[in-house]
Amino acid sequence: MNKEQFIALGLSEDLAEKAATASADELKGFVPKARFDEVNEAKKQAEGSIAERDKQIADLGKTAGLSEEFKKQIETLQGENKAAKEQYEADMKELRLNTALKLSLSGQVHDPDIVAGLLDKTKIELNEDGSVKAGLEDQVKALSESKAFLFVQKEESKPAFKGATPAEAGGGGNPPSDPKGYDAGKSLAEQRNQGGSGK
């Protein structure tokens, strides 16, 4: 602020002059907004020019001036990058397929990993959401017939024992509570000698 502005605020002339001087000293380190905008715009243009120059150098490097050794290194790196990308995509596809198989087989088999290992994964197709689209049902059906022990048996298909129970066959069961002629106070041998019916 200048002296007149301070006087307009109600300061005396002497105080207004001191305040104006202090204000001017304080503002010496500041850059006017117009100058800031100008410098900022120049910076943006410089960054754009550098980016354009880098692109031109890269383009120039592709076409001329590179040594054969440098070109071979670039080609090697490009090949390695391409192979790494393909490997990553294959690993992700395999992971997605294995996850879909485990979810589909869960509850049907004892060990989804073992059953998934027995399937021909090249015949299995997935939907966009990661669920199995086709190729699994026929393979699982064939496996359930040839290797039924891998699959969880349903309640109604548990084997039932056939034949009579031990009690119906006349054996086992509990002995009669009071057989005729049996005396609990005498031994079996004594009762036989006396003609008891404890046989």
Features of this protein?
199 residues, 2 strands, two-stranded antiparallel sheet
Protein architecture, described:
The protein is an all-alpha fold. The chain has a domain at 68-153. It is 57% helix and 3% strand. It has seven helices and two strands; from the N terminus they run αααααββαα. It has helices at 3-8, 13-27, 33-63, 68-105, 112-118, 137-146, 188-193; strands at 125-126, 132-134. Strand 1 (125-126) and strand 2 (132-134) form a beta hairpin. It starts with a helix and ends in a 6-residue tail after the last helix.
What is the structure about, briefly put?
The protein is mainly α and 199 residues long. Helices cover 57% and strands 3% of the residues.
Mean pLDDT: 75
Portion in helices? 55-70%
Helix-strand string: HHHHHEEHH
The main pleated sheet reads as: 2 strands, antiparallel
Helix/strand-derived category reads: mainly alpha
Runs with pLDDT <50, length 5+? none
Instruction: State the end-to-end distance.
Output: 131 Å
Apparent shape:
elongated
> How large a portion of the residues is in β-strands, by DSSP E?
under 5%
Order of strands, main sheet, comes to 1-2
Query: Rounded to an integer, what's the Rg over CA atoms?
Result: 48 Å
* Contiguous helical run count: 7
Number of strands: 2
Please give the structural blueprint.
Layout: H1 3-8, H2 13-27, H3 33-63, H4 68-105, H5 112-118, E1 125-126, E2 132-134, H6 137-146, H7 188-193
Antiparallel strand pairs: 1-2
Helix pairs in contact: 4-5
